[in-house]
Amino acid sequence: MNASHTPLPRHLLTLDGLGAQALTALLVRAQAFAEGHYDRRALDGVAVCTLFFEPSTRTRMSFSLAAQRLGADVLNFDASTSSTRKGETALDTVKNLEAMGVRGFVIRHHEDGAVAALAPHVNHDTVLVNAGDGRSSHPTQGLLDMLTLRQAKGADFSKLKVAIVGDVKHSRVARSDLQALRTLGTGEIRVCGPASLLPDADTLQGCVVSHDLDEALQGVDAAMMLRLQRERMEEGLIASLDDYHRDYGLTAARLKRAAPDAVVMHPGPINRGVEITDEVADGPQSLILRQVSNGVAVRMAVLEALLRG
Ligand code: CP
Question: How far is residue 164's CA from residue 201's CA, in Å, rounded to a whole number?
């Protein structure tokens, strides 16, 4: 089978290996949802649980809303008040929720590969969606970022120059974005950050790597800024937040180096005044809140595709 024609897998664990056709089909479906075309009973009688072992605002709320809009019964599992506090494992938690009839699990976990590790043990009709695992993958963020770029720049990514800037090393968003941008045939992918915050060469394959933000922004169509992930960072990777902002913060003056109609994106939550200034984050070229809106539509498309087939 041609790699671009790979079908959607049973679980959405990563965008790695997802072909262009399946990825584009999800974006087209999400666009229809974004325009309000959906069946409020599509997931009638299906129970979906958001199972988050790490904090979240956007991903968790938008998955809940997405499932509700399609008519699913939604359970929001709160790790801090659950029996995981008494030592129950993630797998036992899933098995117990399956016993209550839950079929869809949206899972965020701090360990790389934690969601994939559950997959061999779940019921044959259970589906898992990775809502972010460690530094590895955040597939629905990758999809919503592609939908946002597609709305702004059109479906042909081959002429686009996109810069991903900041803490790429600790970012699951960057990994999913890189996978999706490659799959969609993006013309030029630039990655920019201090050497201490860039990942291994495999992750950066095919990218133009730079440590100079002014250079990396020159003529780009989109600047995808990343959050400085201080919770995943060892001490000493950056000298100070002020130094980081001076060298890698996106300011209005710097943004002038990009194409005049360039768009600015950020997955959130934002460290205002660190990786991006208020003026840019809230400015006319920012699509940050559009990304959040698109998150609901993309997650509806994913839940529908996996739970309805
Ligand atoms: N972008 C993102 O994953 O945000 P949350 O951590 O708030 O879900």
Answer: 15
Distance 173 CA to ligand 1 centre (A): 9
Angle at 108 between CA 77 and CA 229, to 5 degrees: 125
With CA atoms as reference, report the closest residue to 21 among 240, 185, 222: 185
Among 50, 52, 56, which is best to mutate for testing ligand 1, by the most ligand atoms less than 8 A from CB?
56
Ligand 1 shell residues, CB under 6 Å: 56-60, 132, 141, 267-269
Q: Work out the pLDDT band at 7, boundaries 50, 70, 90.
A: confident
Verdict on whether the full-model pTM lies above 0.90: yes
Interatomic CA distance for residues 48 and 76, integer angstroms: 9
Q: Could you give the CA distance from residue 188 to residue 106 in angstroms, rounded to a whole number? A: 32
Task: Give the CA radius of gyration of the chain.
Answer: 19
Give all domains of the chain, ordered by start, each with its CATH number: 3-136+294-308 (3.40.50.1370), 139-291 (3.40.50.1370)
pLDDT at site 203: 96
Nearest atom in ligand 1 to 62's CA: 8
Q: Give 32-42 pLDDT, tens digit per residue.
A: 999 999 999 99
DSSP run (H or E) holding 73:
strand 73-78
Tokens 């262009």 belong to residue = 20
Task: Describe the crossing of helices 288-308 and 58-69 by its angle, rounded to 10 degrees.
Answer: 50
The proportion of the chain whose per-residue pLDDT surpasses 70, expressed as a percent, equals: 96
Q: Whose CA is nearest to atom 4 of ligand 1?
A: 58
Q: What is the pLDDT of residues 42-87, one digit of tens each?
A: 999 999 999 999 999 999 999 999 999 999 999 999 988 999 999 9
Distance (Å, whole) CA 140 – CA 209: 25
